Amino acid sequence: MTAEVKVANLPRVANPREAFLQVLKYALVGLSNTAMDAAAYYALTRWLWLGSLPVLAKGLAYAIGMVNSFHWNRTWTFKSRGNPWRAAALFILTHIAALGINAGMMAVVLNLWRLPEAGALVIATAAAFGWNFALNKLVVFRVDAAEQEGYNSHHACRNDSLSDPPRQRG
How far is CA 32 from the centre of its chain? Predict the structure, then answer.
């Protein structure tokens, strides 16, 4: 008797180039989040009178970066058109877990592996990045085949209509 293992409808990678571009987009969104976080923190502490409350300012700035991340990853990186409230709840839970992974890996790399701080930062960040990307792709912003087909045909129609030359009345 053989045991059959079923993988729960995981999305297939159509081609490696597409997968690479999705990881690249995810990283670019991450960079924009970091820039937005820093800019918001600076604005909150320098111009909006939260200079004496830097921890509160940092929390607000981080939240602004998360909203940016949610929007761009949902609409651009993963092209999800599913329930935004469900996705938002899962997104928050995923990122809370990522914070634990990041801090936990930092502790392991510094205290058990005895690597330098810079190496620990890179490894901890990479672990959190991998976790977040995988969970965002496979769970939070999961796009099923029907949704992807609808997205592709919608955009193909729009692109075709934009490329058609204008018709002359006559």
Answer: 11
Greatest Cα pair distance, the chain, in angstroms, is 79
Q: Which of the pair, 36 or 166, is modelled with greater confidence?
A: 36
Comparing CA positions, the residue from 80, 65, 83 lying closest to residue 29 is 65
Can you give the length of the chain in residues? Answer: 170
Task: Write down the pLDDT at residue 11.
Answer: 55
Mean pLDDT of all residues belonging to the chain: 85
Say whether 124 sits in a helix, a strand or coil: helix
Backbone CA torsion sign across 73, 76, 78, 83 = positive
The answer to whether 135 touches 94, Cβ cutoff 8 Å, is yes
Number of neighbours of residue 159 by Cβ within 10 angstroms: 10
CA-to-CA distance for 44 and 51, rounded, in angstroms?
7
Q: Tell me: the pLDDT tens digits for 148-165?
A: 565 555 555 444 433 334
Nearest to 60 by CA among 84, 43, 73: 43
Average pLDDT, integer, range 108-129: 96
CA distance 57 to 127: 27
